[in-house]
Amino acid sequence: MLERQMKWNFTYKEADQMEKALDDMNISPTVKRLLQKRGIIAEAEIKRFLTPSLTDLYDPSMISGMEKSKERIMQAIETGESILVFGDYDADGVSATALLVEALRELGAMCDYYIPNRFTEGYGPNEEAFKEAKNQGFSLIITVDTGIAAIEPARVAGELGLDLIITDHHEVQEELPEAYAIIHPKCSKEYPFKELAGVGVAFKLAQYLLGYFPEQLLDFVVIGTIADLVPLVDENRILAYYGLKAITNSKRPGFQALKEVSGIKESVTEEDVGFLIGPRINAVGRLQTAYPAVELLLTEDIEEAHEIASNINQINQERKQIVEAIVQEAIAIVTENEEENKQVIVVAKAGWNQGVLGIVASKLVRTFQRPAICLTLDPEQNRAKGSARSIDAFDLFQNGMQCKELFHQFGGHAQAAGMTLPIENVDKLRARLNTLASEQLEQDDFKEQLHIDGELKLDEIDLSVIQEINQLAPFGMANPKPLFYVKAKVNEQRQIGTKKNHLKITFTDGFHQLPAVGFGMGEHFHAISKEAEVEIVGTLQVNEWNGKKSPQFMLQDIGVSEWQLFDYRGSNLWERQIQHLTEADTICVSFQSNSNTKCNLPVVSYKEWQGNFGEIQTRNMANLILLDLPSELQHLTEVLSQVEWKNIFTCYRLEQQHYMESLPSREDFKWFYSMLIKRGTFNQDTELLLLSKHKGWKKNKIDFIIQVFSELEFVKITNGVVEPNEQVKKRNLTESLHYQNSLKQSKIEQLLYYSNYRELKQWISSQIEQTSSIEEEKVYGL
To answer: Locate the DDH domain: which residues (predicted)?
Structure first.
């Protein structure tokens, strides 16, 4: 048995019961089910979803503050005022900054850009930056992807005589800044779509300023729209769809260099932006100033682009190393203080790089299955600063706002937030959030949720199915890549990666095969037995190798619902295969008093088992290791049936010649006795080897015949010389206890040692089921 790590929600079973409104449309059953599950059932909605069109985008003039902002910006351009684009240091802010700068320059504006330093200035607009902008002669500041929470900086801008236009998409707080204008979808009642990314809002402003639809800016739009994890529906879906085409074909030197260092050679996908391009742009602002990222997107020099892209790639590698080091430290802190972080993790330490704490928090959420806040401490300024990530069931923004008096600064979304607070408030924050979570969440809420879109058989999975599914791309928030449930047997598996931390596994139904990859699942290698029937959830993708394309399954979670047999019979290396087991839930059982088999885990003899069964049963044992063969099958049946084992390991081997090989037939007994009558004597010391060669018998087979005859008094043995008794009573061979025991042991070996895997598992299952059936009869009084 292998426990699932996540909660599986079979939502497709609900979708199957929906009205069959798509029957008349020329859509495959798979796509039809996926659309139904997303609530897309009207013909017009379906066409708009499957064939995104730029004409379906909304008029930017519907956003409040747009006209007022245009008038002020055009005035600044006409009068030669200096305009400052004030951005953010993440991929959304960087792409929004580059986009608006390019649009303003096209209009002839005198403009520059400014992105605050994460380490010295923190997030968002700040008073010192505004004062410096004033000193440098700027009179108009336009924020992108930031500013909606900048209450005090906006007031200072007014006092300085700076006109401030805020464009943002983050959650609106109780008070709005006093700005010249605010362009924010959630502040615009008439605007139909509220979930644009920061770069999406900047694009709308650029479109309105330019007076036409600027397709040339779509390559900027797709970066922030996908990297910032906004819902890829409605306008975001259209912008991402056409943005991916734009970035694929982009002639900008910066984009070409960025794709090259990211290893992207063909069409750019949403996964390329989310996992390759976005992280590299983010890495710059996480470790230093984000200016190189903006310069890369705006440069027109191919050599400069390659140089910047190469530096950014190196920074990203450094970022990965820093993240890994902090993750290990954070895990150690949580482990040592498990009770304090039972519902919500809040970890803090001086010296942590605040730029990567959002990534660290995400990894902690995945590791511990609960919301996590990671903070770096600055004792000199008495300040804790960092980022938070959450689970689906816990709204970080809403719960954070309930603790707002603890923060200097706080902002973000339901699943991600940033904050600054006094160091003395860190413990208070942890206590408050843990209390709030305990009041709101059930145990199942902490498990990562997998919403499964459908079930597939192996014979249904081919390239055409993947092509059908990809009609719903680009995938992302609110339009996730479809998850499928598959049940099949393991054909082969191996650990891959330099650290052997990934799993490569092939499933089969006897006729078809499906290769699968599980990143970070290498530890499951020892937890999945040969021929186990495995349940998996994941996504489908096309794998291309040497020009040949084939389906591949990307694992999200894996489980085995039945008990598993791990067959290491006869192996000298079985101890290597059980190194992942622990004393907490594992026990080794030995049936032979003279057993020489050693094990590093707790070992009990069968007699100890009988005497301490109650204590063993209360220890919640899950793994049983059988070190040797029983002398009675009933002894093994008792051990198998008295505990609900999840995994059984057969690790025994036969050191001596096997009874099954040496047990003589009745004809063998007759031949030996006839030979003895003719010869009169048989010297075991001098003639045993000669007889062994003559008949091709093992020596222990000859010894066995002699011992049985001696027990039945057919012969007498004096100083190793065997002679027939003159007066012999007729007796059956089965009257010999030695013969009976050997016959019984031979049957045990044949059943438990020489049987194949399926035969052995079937027998063990029959013992477990038989006992379970008897227990049920007792319970129900039958």
So the answer is: 82-225
Task: Report the pLDDT value the prediction gives residue 496, as an integer from 0 to 100.
Answer: 94
Q: What letter does residue 475 receive in the DSSP assignment?
A: P
The total number of residues written for the chain in this structure: 782
Q: Do 395 and 366 fall within a single domain? A: yes
Task: Pick the last residue of a domain from 400, 424, 445.
Answer: 445
How many domains are there within the chain? 5
For residue 231, count other CB atoms closer than 10 A to its CB: 18
Look at residue 21 in the predicted model and tell me its pLDDT.
Answer: 53
Among candidate residues 274, 269, 311, 272, the one with its CA nearest the CA of residue 290: 311
How large a percentage of the chain has pLDDT more than 70?
Answer: 95
What is the Cα–Cα distance from 187 to 171, expressed in whole angstroms? 10
DSSP labels, 283-306:
HHHHHS-SHHHHHHHH---HHHHH
Residues 758 and 741 in one domain: no
* Residue 393 DSSP symbol: T
Q: What is the pLDDT of residue 621?
A: 86
Whichever domain contains 418, its CATH number is 3.10.310.30
Report the pLDDT value the prediction gives residue 775, as an integer from 0 to 100: 45
Q: Is residue 44 part of a domain?
A: no
CA distance 606 to 623: 16
Q: What is the pLDDT of residues 679-735, one digit of tens each?
A: 999 999 999 999 999 998 988 889 999 999 999 999 999 999 999 998 888 889 888
Domain ranges, residue 89: 56-315
What token pair was written down for 494? 């191996």
In Å, what is the CA distance from 428 to each residue of 406, 421, 425, 432, 663? 8, 11, 5, 6, 76
pLDDT at 13 over 70: no
What is the helix (H) or strand (E) element at residue 201, kind and residue range?
A: helix 198-210
102 and 196 inside one domain: yes
Average pLDDT, the chain: 91
